[in-house]
Design a protein that fits this description.
Elements (H helix, E strand, L loop, with lengths): L9 E5 L4 H12 L3 E6 L2 H13 L3 E6 L5 H31 L9 H18 L11 H12 L1
Parallel strand pairs: 1-2, 2-3
Helix pairs in contact: 1-2, 2-4, 3-4
The protein binds nicotinamide-adenine-dinucleotide.
């Protein structure tokens, strides 16, 4: 296996809380991809992210019901927003390491990666983007006004 084959690539895996989705997520991360693991089961998908962090990979989790269009749209947007969150968190960790602020703490690099993954998952959940709804057209507004008057 080439651990740098997918370096710099991003993958979004659905059904990532167990079975084939989890195995795929682990393999993609092991080959260097940053994996956005999605599933309807939040606890399971977070466990997958922890497993990836424990093997030294990069991942974030998202909860999605693939049978619902707005859920899929939201998770696709969240994966885009993740780019900023990931680089923000990675940047903060890299800076603290460079400054030597963590030289005397007992945490291993693997534990620091697990911490970073946890921060990313939490921030992604907090800044979960909403799907923008289209503005009503003048015709739709007029229809609404007619209904309200009836
Ligand atoms: N395991 C096999 O050998 C095998 C062989 C052929 C086909 N398949 C098919 O491949 C698929 C995955 O198999 P598996 O063994 O990994 O199953 P699995 O049950 O372990 O994993 C399926 C994952 O999908 C998630 N999920 C279910 N509904 C969802 C939804 N609406 N939105 C988001 N996530 C949802 C589940 O929470 C679960 O984590 C299944 O459809 C299965 O029938 C499996």
């Amino acid at each position: 296996m080439d651990k740098d084959r997918l370096k710099g690539k991003r993958a979004l895996v659905t059904g990532a809380a167990s079975g084939i989705g989890r195995a795929t997520s682990l393999r993609l991360a092991a080959e260097g991809a940053t994996v956005f693991c999605c599933d309807i089961v939040a606890a399971g998908v977070e466990e997958t992210v922890s497993m990836i962090a424990a093997q030294g990979g990069k991942a974030a989790s998202g909860t999605v019901d693939v049978s619902k269009l707005d859920s899929c749209e939201a998770i696709a947007r969240a994966s885009e927003a993740n780019r900023d969150i990931d680089s923000l968190v990675d940047g903060v960790f890299a800076e603290r390491l460079r400054e030597g602020q963590l030289d005397e703490c007992d945490l291993t690099m693997r534990e620091l990666q697990a911490l970073a993954a946890s921060f990313k998952a939490t921030l992604t959940a907090v800044y979960h983007p909403r799907v923008p709804y289209p503005e009503p057209t003048p015709e739709e507004l007029a229809n609404l006004a007619r209904i309200a008057q009836a």
